[in-house]
Design a protein that fits this description.
five-stranded antiparallel beta sheet; Jelly Rolls; 21% strand; binds 2-acetamido-2-deoxy-beta-D-glucopyranose; alpha+beta; 12 strands
Length: 388
């Protein structure tokens, strides 16, 4: 390429030189023919002179051109030499370039190999990182489980310590054995036989410990059973408590009816010619206000079973005393007593089933009398046993 360009440049140079020479010659000829045309006749002689001068001039020019041509040929030779030199240089450079290219190819190949090697290393590294992460996660899980196990162990130990005195005694015995073992260890170098014995002993203790652990497990199971039993008892207790509350409520809500009243503070109460309704005027108790101290009547506020009683007194002197009890004007009792001298009493009680509104009262027959003072010799009482 470089060679070709040098040759072309040289050729162009030579051509341009030739052309410039030729053109200048033509111009001179042309100019001369014009001037010849302008002064044709007058310049015949001078024309001859001019031609020879011109010929001389041309010869000189040819000589000059020959010189120039020689120079040019020299130049051309030099240029050819230069060209050869350049060509050889070029060839050397080509070889060098080829060598460099080969080296570059090798380097590229080597680079590619290194690239693939690097990719392999990276892949391996990624795998290692993944492995590492997995191992870390596993390690964390194992640690968590370990912590849980440790907590469980602590709990179990506490429970075992609290639940069983046996384990404590075994631990004490184990501690004593460990002390023994320490002594034995000091003599172990000289007494391997003793060590064997010790090992056996330790094995036995381990078995004992294992037995104790079994016992602990048994105790735990018993404890669990007791727990469930306790839960059952608690449930029953809760039910019972509820029942008690309900019963208390029932008791609270049960109608409360009870009364007692004394007859009078003013001595004798006497019936005339007719039966006399007794009015126990001194209210001692009157819960529920079912008894009236102005009429002497008890009126049942609820359907139920009631108990009524009375004790009345008279100072008898060869005479009778009487008392009657009525339910809704129907006689329930009639009692009599006779004495010749001194105080006498009549007393009785009765259980009656009453409907709401049923009335109870007491009477003495005509000509009969009773006695009472602030000492309450004569009283009338009643109360509700239970509701029906
Ligand atoms: C009679 O009963 C009324 C009403 O319960 C009471 O206020 C009064 O104190 C009673 N009388 C006597 C003397 O107990
Ligand atoms: C008789 O009963 C009334 C009323 O409850 C009471 O105040 C009085 O002390 C009683 N009399 C006696 C001697 O107990």
């Amino acid at each position: 390429m470089l060679k070709m360009r040098a040759v072309i440049t040289l050729l162009v140079l030579l051509l341009s030189m030739c052309v410039s020479q030729t053109r200048s010659t033509q111009t001179e000829v042309h100019t001369e023919s014009q001037s010849t045309g302008a002064a044709a006749a007058a310049a015949d002689v001078s024309t001859q002179l001019d031609v020879s001068a011109e010929l001389r001039e041309l010869r000189d020019m040819v000589v000059e051109l020959r010189v120039t041509l020689r120079f040019t040929q020299d130049d051309l030779r030099n240029t050819k030499d230069l060209l050869n030199k350049i060509e050889s240089e070029n060839y050397a450079q080509d070889r060098e370039l080829t060598a460099v290219k080969t080296e570059m190819m090798n380097l590229i190949k080597y680079n590619l190999e290194q690239d693939s090697e690097l990719i392999a290393v990276k892949t391996e590294m990624v795998n290692l990182i993944k492995d590492n992460l997995a191992q870390e996660a596993e390690l964390t899980a194992v640690k968590t489980r370990l912590a849980a196990s440790e907590t469980e162990v602590v709990n179990l130990r506490e429970e075992a310590a609290a639940q069983t005195a046996d384990l404590r005694s075994v631990t004490e015995r184990l501690g004593a054995t460990e002390t023994d073992m320490d002594h034995v260890k000091k003599d172990t170098a000289a007494q391997h036989t003793d060590l064997t014995t010790m090992n056996t002993e330790v094995m036995n203790l381990k078995m004992e410990l294992s037995a104790s652990e079994t016992e602990v497990e048994k105790l735990k199971m018993e404890h669990a059973e007791q727990d469930s039993e306790l839960t059952a008892v608690k449930t029953r207790l809760a039910a019972t408590e509820t029942e008690v509350v309900n019963l208390e409520k029932q008791i609270r809500e049960k109608p409360k009816v009870a009364f007692s009243a004394g007859l009078t503070n003013s001595g004798f109460i006497e019936a005339g010619s007719t039966e006399l309704n007794l009015v126990f005027t001194k209210t001692i108790t009157n819960v529920g206000q079912a008894y009236s101290n102005t009429t002497g009547f008890f009126t049942a506020p609820v359907r139920g079973v009631y108990y009524f009683r009375f004790t009345v007194m008279d100072g008898l002197n060869s005479r009778y005393m009487h008392i009657k009890m009525f339910k809704n004007a129907k006689q329930v009792m009639w009692l009599d007593n006779y004495d010749t001298d001194g105080y006498a009493y009549l007393s009785s009680g009765v259980t009656l089933q009453l409907e709401v509104g049923d009335v109870i009262n007491t009477r003495i027959p005509e000509g009969s009398r009773l006695y009472d003072t602030s000492d309450n010799y004569s009283t009338f009482s009643g109360f509700l046993l239970f509701v029906l």
